[in-house]
Amino acid sequence: MRVLLTGGAGFIGSHIALLLLERGYDVLIFDSFANSSSNVIKRIENFLDNKALKYKLRVINGDIRDKKILESIFSKCVKENKPIEVVIHLAGVKSVVESLTNPLYYWDVNVSGTLNLLLTMKEHQCYSLVFSSSATIYGLSSYVPILEEQKISPITPYGQTKVAVENLFYDLYKSNVNLWKICSLRYFNPVGAHPSGLIGEDPKGIPNNLFPFITQVAIGRQKTLSIYGDDWETKDGSGIRDYIHIIDLAEGHLSSIDYLNTSESCLEFINLGSGKGYSVFQIIRQFELSTGCRIPFSIESRRDGDVAVSYADISKAKRLLSWTPKRSLEQMCLDGWNWQMKNPNGYG
Ligand code: UD1
After folding, report:
1. Residue among 169, 127, 187, 135 at smallest CA distance from 4
2. 162 φ, ψ (degrees, to nearest 5)
């Protein structure tokens, strides 16, 4: 089965690509490399070399807003008699802070880009899609664990773009309820790395997210972790989030493909998280315990756009996808640290 994986060179995409290839899929990675490194591809190829699966991977450099390239990819696959049967769409921009200063760019890439993709899919009778949505769409939702039916109230342009795409799916599905098969996966906080240490998260510049910041403090690239508030209404005052191991998250995508393959037309919005909430202080303690590294920190004021608590109810994913996250917080720390140690400067 041939899969188009947009954004396949990124942190999440590269882990999905490996899993797909290991399970025998033909994979077309489509990526602009604006926020990822071409070294990722070399790493994937090296890894696959040992397993003789390399020939199933093809990489195309392009921008999701460029409809001509998308059209040529779909057409070429038809000509080869190996049409694209399912798309995993991750290509997009994801910095909350940047989206506040440059909303047009966020709407252009995330919304217009997705529109291009859907138009092209329709033109080529490809109707199966797995999409990377985000827990950010729940915004200030007031109770946990968060269920999919909970009120959507994004508080940033980035979140708005994810909601806009989900609304578009809704209109599309309603327009012909016998056609489209869509899983929109609402990610919580993906962390950790492939246990080989070959691929992992390599944020450009200073990391915004907690986990890569911690591993960079541990390796000496950053001095001190700033904790954004110890006065939240939580048991220790720091923010609580749902961290999910990147391999568990990647497996959720493969389960989604299996689900789409066995389903009639459908549109499902599904949380992918661990279903557990951990505070910033708990994460630091666990990381120190698992790795033996010390993480110096200082308490700073709250960060704009943050919420006190966010963790998922994952019963829908378990029920529908027969998927369950298997890796512990300790595993997330160990694998994240293994990646950082083996790659002190990321893909460098
Ligand atoms: C952030 C994004 C979210 C995105 C997700 C991707 C914001 C406001 N939200 O989520 O839209 O989908 O990443 O993974 O950027 N923290 C610190 N110090 C740091 C960094 C973070 O104390 O240097 C705290 C935060 O206040 C929060 C927790 O750690 O309580 C997790 O933060 P982070 O890793 O940035 O993820 P989210 O804010 O949940």
Report:
1. 127
2. -70, -40
Would you state the pLDDT for residue 299?
Answer: 98
> Is 158 an annotated catalytic residue?
yes
Q: For 10-60, what is each residue's pLDDT tens digit?
A: 999 999 999 999 999 999 999 999 999 999 999 999 888 766 676 799 999
Helix/strand/coil for 98: helix
State in Å: Cα 155 to ligand 1 middle: 14
* One-character DSSP codes across 146-157: BPTTSPP---SH
Question: What b/e readout covers 278-302, taking b as 16+ CB neighbours within 10 angstroms?
Answer: bbbbbbbebbeebbebebebeeeee
Q: 316 in a domain, yes or no?
A: yes
Q: Closest residue (by CA) to atom 1 of ligand 1?
A: 209
What is the C-alpha separation between 31 and 14, in angstroms, rounded? Answer: 11
Strands 240-241 and 278-279: antiparallel
Q: Is residue 151 part of a domain?
A: yes
Which of these is catalytic: 106, 127, 158, 259? 158
Distance separating alpha carbons of residues 291 and 297, to the nearest angstrom: 17
What's the CATH number where 56 sits? 3.40.50.720
Q: Which H or E run contains 165?
A: helix 157-175
Q: Pocket around ligand 1: residues whose beta carbon is below 6 Å from it?
A: 96, 134, 136, 158, 189, 208-210, 213, 225-228, 239, 241, 280, 303, 305-306
Residue 293, pLDDT above cutoff 70: yes
In a domain, 254, yes or no: yes
347 within a domain of the structure (yes/no) = no
Across 63-67, 151-155, 186-190, 329-333, least confident range? 151-155
| CA 208 / ligand 1 centre spacing (Å) | 7
Query: Quick one: pLDDT at residue 52?
Result: 64
Please tell me the total count of domains within the chain.
Answer: 1
**What is the domain extent for residue 238?**
2-342
Q: How confident is the model over 95-124, as pLDDT tens digits?
A: 998 999 999 999 999 999 999 999 999 999
Residue 7, Ramachandran bin (φ over 0: left; ψ between -120 and 50: alpha; else beta): left
